[in-house]
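Inputs:
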Amino acid sequence: MNTHALTDLCYRMADDELILAHRHSEWTGLGPLLEEDIAFSSIAQDKLGHAQALFTIMHDLGGEPDADTAAFMRDELKMRCSHFVELPNGEYDFSLVRHFLFDVAEYVRWTALVQSSVEPLANLARKIHGELKYHLYHAQTWMVQLGANGNEESHARMQSALNEAWPYALGMFEPGEFEDALIADGIFIGEAVAQQRWLELVTELLQSSTLMIPTQVEPIYGGRKGHHTEHLKPLLDEMTEVYRIDPSAEW
Amino acid sequence: MTQQDVYDALLNVHDPEIPTISLVDMGIITNVDVRSDDEVHVTMTPTFVGCPAIDVMRKDVETAVRGLGVTNVTVSVTFDQPWTTNRLTEAGKAALLKHGLAPPEPFDTLSLKLDVLNNVACPFCGSRDTTLKSPFGPTLCRSLHYCNVCLQAFEGFKPV
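Outputs:
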């Protein structure tokens, strides 16, 4: 097994989950409805758990630091998250669209990882696969409700958010350094196939939403190589503040 | 010391968030390995990967096994045997109901459709004339429902 390839894949996935968990948690206490407040908080908690489990796999198999150190002690150059998850929450429409596009991608990734040659990753995938159904159900419900069953304003807002999100969403599939090794060793299907399956599932789930999927859009890459948006540094400063003051603190 | 002695002790360890159900009936204890009268290894797995109660439960398990006079107790959390709804025992389902939570019903774990969450039987009056309000509730493993017959909100335990 190629440990470098596995570690690179896990950091890309874990960092996406960690950073989006933080963004989602920013809705806690501020959601437009109590149920939505709870939904975003719950999804954040799920994602944080997924990140922690991935960090733990790398710790056990690849000799990487433990989960807390990996999550809180790397500076932005070491982070491998995509630009998509770094963007501020913006309005609720953008948060919903990002939640939808990201969770379809996450579902595609974890579904493929059920077949991974790395046993702990495959076991974790079987577990996470079951959880993601609830995320997709929630996301798709709102895409259809606000896209097709709302009013003119809700439709316009969702379409505009979808257009804005699209190049960043494509950026989630920026190839990593070890694509060939990941595919050859049966660790993962690779970004190109993942993107294709993602687009198929996004198209299927948006069928009754009346929203148009943008075409001929160039992806925004960089995050997987450590180049990030201006939004990541302030997020990391806030997320790691307590840990940096006192790494032994329990809260 | 037998495996059964350990399981019996763990029947007294309850979920910190649903105090009517034991960790054994919840199905989150996946293995008990009694290596000697003084060495026991327990393996457990959370209902949801991000379950924040797992550390508390791990400590409770360790304390319970130590209570049997065992000095060397290790408790590990793994996903080798991931938790699914099928791991809940019948006693476990009854315990959920007692706590006012609708127990999960069997469904196709591979399907993306969650129709099963509509018309969950109300834990108070038993009617199936109920509506799913949200797939997310006060803890990761619960959903929110409303009963159109007894007009009460209730929570369900999510099938996974």
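Remarks. The mean pLDDT of chain A is 96. The radius of gyration of chain A is 18 Å.
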